[in-house]
């Protein structure tokens, strides 16, 4: 899952969202195991089945489908604060989408979204991989230390984000103190447009490492130790063992880890909003924060364009999401 | 967990592991350290690496200013757990054991639901709650928070309950138990680990939620602790020791639940409920 906390969804991250993983797989499992129902009792089982499913069906319609519908509706009308409250906003078709596409903030937000997602994943994944390899053979205290690595993932995002904000503070932050000790001039992490995106990426990587570690570690546990013994007998070095044995066998798990990471990193909002609000001057704004900024961040809210940006984000997340579901099916069938 | 034969001496791995863990957890240590630092030392160069002149002022501020927020968060967390389990457990049972025609579509919808960015949900809920006059209401926030956990919870229950032996349910049926009774007296007690796992995560996510709270409850009378911290920062409050102390307190449930309930989570994993 997000939870693989938080991605789990939540959020690795972002993690938040990531936490969905484990359950998600289970369901695919269940769906796959559904055989053709036996004919005779079909209808009574159907009745009972849907009776038990009724609450979640109503729930999904009321609390997922309806908010989504409202969001699409928002993006197709010209809303002002007045019409938002009292109704009667004129239908404007795709105007809001045209507005955001021609907005000078669009290009940078797109690039920041891609850079934030790509760089976060790159570091989370390879650091997680390195740690998974490190922990894959048991040693004294290894289980305890591995559990401790989960802490960043379990902390509320506001806690992680505000701790990082303080650590990256220009004048009194501990990071600049350390850099000073190394002879490096202090960096305006959160207040200079050059560094703000890097700062939120650093915090996000920190939060995302545990998810990647957990996923890859458990994938490695499924690899038969005999393969390693055989490789060792053949005189393979640790480096060769990783690339010739671990990595190829880990590919399916790695693919799923990466895709889920993508889906959940795309929608990261809390960390950026708390640390920089997407600023300064939009230098760390992604689609998620830009959408929020439009809808809630200004004195005069622009709900229509905000919803439009949000819907673009949904399309991106679902595109990767469907690739993930396919990859997972393939792996199950293999 | 299978135990492998312990290879030769690996004390150096333990040392490296300790160093790596220390590096990884440094921000957590720093949060605790700063929460104990005196105001006048907060901006010192170099900083105090250890809370040598430790003070509990930050925590005193928490006690005076943040207790109501903590209470609200607790209430929201418990409400979210109740709602999530009530909706997700029957659904999981149905998907795992009753398998009605069309259930696969619902499983798929649950997978998709997990991928929708929270920000979209927040905006949709805002529009709806504004019209209903439900902005700033705690029940409204519980409903919104539960959307993070319900799809996950349903899928975990389904995965866990599919492991319940069919004979058990058949025996109940033979004894004349109806579906509802079978679910309540057999399935639920057997699924205790899944209940604990789902509750654990539902609580943590609701407790940690910032986005829904900030969107739907920013002017509410009763606000959760995440907003408490956020206001602290937003008010240009330069009392970073109090901010960090609040952060430490807000991290307590995550820590406690992990330590106390780790057994259940582990049990859930081995039972295939949450297969990594």
Biggest interface, chains and residue tallies: A-B, 117 and 112 residues
Q: Quickly count the domains of chain A.
A: 1
Strand content of chain A: under 5%
- Tell me about the largest β-sheet of chain B: none
**End-to-end CA span of chain A:** 22 Å
Query: Helical residue percent of chain A?
Result: over 70%
* SS summary, helix count of chain A: 15
Shape of chain A: globular
**Spans of chain A of 5+ residues with little confidence (pLDDT < 50)?**
1-40
Q: Which structural category fits the helices and strands of chain A? A: mainly alpha
What's the mean pLDDT score of chain B? 84
Q: What would CATH call the class of chain A?
A: Mainly Alpha
From the coordinates shown, what is the CATH architecture of chain A?
Answer: Orthogonal Bundle
Protein architecture, described:
The complex is a heterodimer of chains A (334) and B (276). Chain A has 334 residues and is mostly helical. Chain A has one domain (9-25, 71-333): Orthogonal Bundle (MetI-like fold), CATH 1.10.3720. Helix content of chain A is 70%, strand content 1%. Chain A contains 15 helices and two strands. In chain A, strands 1-2 form a two-stranded antiparallel sheet. Chain A is globular. Chain A starts with 8 loop residues before the first strand and ends with a helix. Chain B has a single domain (59-270), classed as MetI-like (MetI-like fold, Orthogonal Bundle). Chain B contains 13 helices and no strands. Chain B has helices spanning 11-24, 26-35, 57-65, 67-98, 103-113, 118-132, 138-161, 166-174, 179-190, 192-208, 211-216, 225-234, 240-270. In chain B, helix 7 runs antiparallel to helix 10 (192-208). The radius of gyration of chain B is 23 Å and the shape is globular. The model of chain B is unreliable at 267-276 (pLDDT under 50).
């Amino acid at each position: 899952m997000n939870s693989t906390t938080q991605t789990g969804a939540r959020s690795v991250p972002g993690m938040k969202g990531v936490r969905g993983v484990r359950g998600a797989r289970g369901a695919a499992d269940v769906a796959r195991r559904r055989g053709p129902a036996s004919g005779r009792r079909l209808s009574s089982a159907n009745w009972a089945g849907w009776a038990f499913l009724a609450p979640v069906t109503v729930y999904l319609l009321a609390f997922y489908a309806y908010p989504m519908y409202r969001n699409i509706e928002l993006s197709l009308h010209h809303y002002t604060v007045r019409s938002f409250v009292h109704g009667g906003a004129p239908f404007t078709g795709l105007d809001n989408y045209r507005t955001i596409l021609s907005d000078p903030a669009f290009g940078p937000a797109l690039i920041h979204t891609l850079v934030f997602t790509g760089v976060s994943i790159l570091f989370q994944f390879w650091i997680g991989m390195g740690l998974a390899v490190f922990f894959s053979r048991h040693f004294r205290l290894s289980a305890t230390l591995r559990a401790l690595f989960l802490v960043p993932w379990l902390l509320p995002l506001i806690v992680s984000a505000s701790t990082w904000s303080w650590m990256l503070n220009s004048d009194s932050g501990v990071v600049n103190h350390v850099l000073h000790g190394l002879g490096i001039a202090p960096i305006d992490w959160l207040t200079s447009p050059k560094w703000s995106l890097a700062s939120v990426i650093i915090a996000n990587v920190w939060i995302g490492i545990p998810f990647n570690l957990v996923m890859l570690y458990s994938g490695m546990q499924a690899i038969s130790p005999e393969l390693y013994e055989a490789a060792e007998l053949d005189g393979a070095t640790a480096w060769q063992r990783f690339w010739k044995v671990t990595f190829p066998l880990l590919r399916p798990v790695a693919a799923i880890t990466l895709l889920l990471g993508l889906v959940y990193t795309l929608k990261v909002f809390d960390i950026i909003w708390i640390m920089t609000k997407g600023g300064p001057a939009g230098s760390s704004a992604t689609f998620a924060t830009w959408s929020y900024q439009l809808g809630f961040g200004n004195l005069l809210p622009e709900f229509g364009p905000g919803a439009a940006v949000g819907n673009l984000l949904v399309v991106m997340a679902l595109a990767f999401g469907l690739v993930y579901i396919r990859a997972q099916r393939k792996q199950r069938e293999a | 967990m299978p135990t492998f034969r312990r290879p030769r001496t690996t004390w150096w791995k333990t040392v490296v592991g300790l160093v790596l863990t220390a590096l990884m957890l440094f921000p957590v240590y720093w949060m605790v350290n700063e929460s104990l630092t005196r105001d006048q030392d907060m901006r010192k160069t170099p900083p105090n690496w250890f809370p040598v002149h430790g003070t509990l002022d930050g925590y005193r501020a928490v006690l005076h200013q943040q207790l109501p927020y903590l209470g609200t968060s607790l209430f929201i967390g418990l409400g979210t757990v109740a709602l999530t389990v009530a909706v997700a457990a029957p659904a999981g049972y149905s998907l795992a054991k009753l398998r009605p025609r069309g259930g696969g579509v619902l499983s798929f919808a649950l997978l998709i639901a997990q991928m929708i960015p929270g920000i979209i949900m927040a905006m949709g809920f805002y529009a709806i709650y504004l019209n209903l006059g439900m902005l700033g209401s705690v029940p409204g926030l519980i409903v919104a928070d539960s959307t993070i956990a319900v799809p996950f919870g349903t899928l975990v229950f389904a995965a866990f309950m599919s492991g319940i032996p069919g004979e058990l349910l058949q025996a109940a049926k033979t004894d004349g138990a109806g579906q509802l009774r079978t679910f309540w007296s057999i399935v639920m007690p057997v699924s205790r680990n899944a209940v604990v796992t789902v509750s654990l995560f539902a609580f943590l996510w609701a407790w940690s939620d910032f986005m829904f709270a900030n969107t739907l409850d920013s002017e509410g009378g009763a606000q959760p602790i995440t907003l408490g911290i956020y206001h602290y920062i937003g008010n240009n409050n330069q009392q970073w020791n109090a901010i960090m102390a609040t952060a430490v307190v807000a991290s307590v449930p995550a820590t406690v639940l992990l330590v106390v309930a780790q057994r259940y989570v582990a049990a859930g994993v081995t039972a295939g409920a949450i297969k990594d």
